[in-house]
Amino acid sequence: MTLQIVDLTEELIDEALDVFYESNLIHCAGAPDYFRPIPKEESRPYIEWIVKTPHTFGLAALADGKVAGIVFAAEEEKPDNLFAYQKYYKIYDIAVSEAFRGQHIGQALNEAVKERARANNIANIELEVFCFNQGATAFYHKLGYREVSTIMSLKV
């Protein structure tokens, strides 16, 4: 398998939608009271926003030319100087198609985000992982991520 990490472009959105949809179904199964299953095409505006907005970016992992994984992220900035860093990358979504899991594609996507961060003098990357997703949590720990906060939700 030949693996290539490329910037997500409009030409790759259809295939990226497939991977994102798979991820959505996993989230719906793991937290059905928090996520709702939506038709794949309803995520198109979100992915187009990632591709077109200056402070956001998407990367696609191409396995033999097919989108096997995606990462969507943005450069964000903390509004005060309380934190050790002001600017950081926030990973919104990272997903690998089930057919390609176990082939280090998620690791390659993470490395590509780290390289971009270094090139842009970004010292920190953050992401959110949902409690039910213990496999993802273990994966992020393996990559060197650590817990620094807990996001809590209250349905009213």
Shape: globular
End-to-end distance? 48 Å
Enumerate the spans where pLDDT stays under 50 for 5 or more consecutive residues.
Answer: none
Structural class designation: alpha+beta
What topology emerges from the helices and strands here?
Elements: E1 3-7, H1 13-30, H2 44-52, E2 56-63, E3 66-77, E4 87-96, H3 105-119, E5 125-127, H4 134-143
Parallel strand pairs: 4-5
Antiparallel strand pairs: 1-2, 2-3, 3-4
Kindly describe this structure.
By secondary structure, the protein is an alpha+beta fold. The chain has one domain: Aminopeptidase. Helices cover 33% and strands 24% of the residues. The protein has helices at 13-30, 44-52, 105-119, 134-143; strands spanning 3-7, 56-63, 66-77, 87-96, 125-127. A five-stranded mixed beta sheet has the order 1-2-3-4-5, sandwiched between helices. The longest helix is centred in the N-terminal third of the chain and has 18 residues, at 13-30. It starts with a strand and ends in a 13-residue tail after the last helix. The mean pLDDT is 95.
Q: Which tags fit this structure?
A:
single chain, alpha+beta, Aminopeptidase, 5-stranded mixed beta sheet, globular
Summed up:
This protein has 156 residues and is of the alpha+beta class.
